[in-house]
Design a protein that fits this description.
With 135 residues, the protein is α/β, with parallel strands linked by helices. It has one domain: 5'-nuclease (Rossmann fold, 3-Layer(aba) Sandwich). The protein has six helices and five strands.
Length: 135
C-alpha cells in the first residue's frame, strides 16, 4: 500500500449523520483506495463516531450500519492508542491548544509516522509536521 493517511472522526460523522459535506467525504474515502493511499484511523475515532451516532440518531440500525461500514471499509487500518500515546497527547494539548480527542489523534499519527490527516477541523493546521487534507 502507499502512504498512510489518518481519517478524522468528523469525516466519518459527515457521512453517517448525512451532514453538509457527506458526499465530498464519501467520494474522498473511495478515492483513497484508487490513488494507492492507506486509510488509517484509531479505535478511539471509531468508538467516538459510534457514540455520536447513537446520541444523534438514536437508531440501533444506524449504529449497526456504521459498525458494518467500519468492518467492511476496504484497507482501513485501525490503530489502538497506547497509554504512551495518551501521555504524549498532553503535550499537544499545551503546545497546539487542542482538546484531548484531537491531541490523541496527533499523538497516534506522530508515533506511527503518519504525516497526513483528512479532516474538516482547521486546528490541525497548527500542528508542525501534520498536513491537513480537506475532502
Amino acid at each position: 500500500m502507499g502512504e498512510e493517511v489518518f481519517i478524522d472522526t468528523n469525516i466519518f460523522l459527515e457521512i453517517f449523520l448525512d451532514q453538509e459535506n457527506a458526499d465530498n467525504c464519501e467520494q474522498f474515502l473511495k478515492h483513497l483506495g484508487e490513488v494507492n493511499e492507506q486509510p488509517v484511523t484509531s479505535d478511539f475515532v471509531v468508538y467516538s463516531s459510534l457514540v455520536a451516532i447513537e446520541r444523534n440518531l438514536k437508531s440501533v440500525n444506524s449504529l449497526r450500519n456504521a459498525i458494518i461500514f467500519f468492518t467492511n471499509y476496504s484497507g482501513l487500518h485501525v490503530l489502538r492508542p497506547t497509554l504512551e500515546d495518551a501521555y504524549l497527547a498532553t503535550k499537544f494539548i499545551v503546545e497546539c491548544n487542542l482538546d484531548f480527542d484531537d491531541s490523541l489523534v496527533v499523538s497516534c499519527m506522530k508515533n506511527n509516522g503518519i504525516k497526513k490527516i483528512v479532516s474538516l477541523d482547521k486546528h490541525f493546521d497548527r500542528v508542525n509536521g501534520v498536513e491537513r487534507i480537506k475532502p
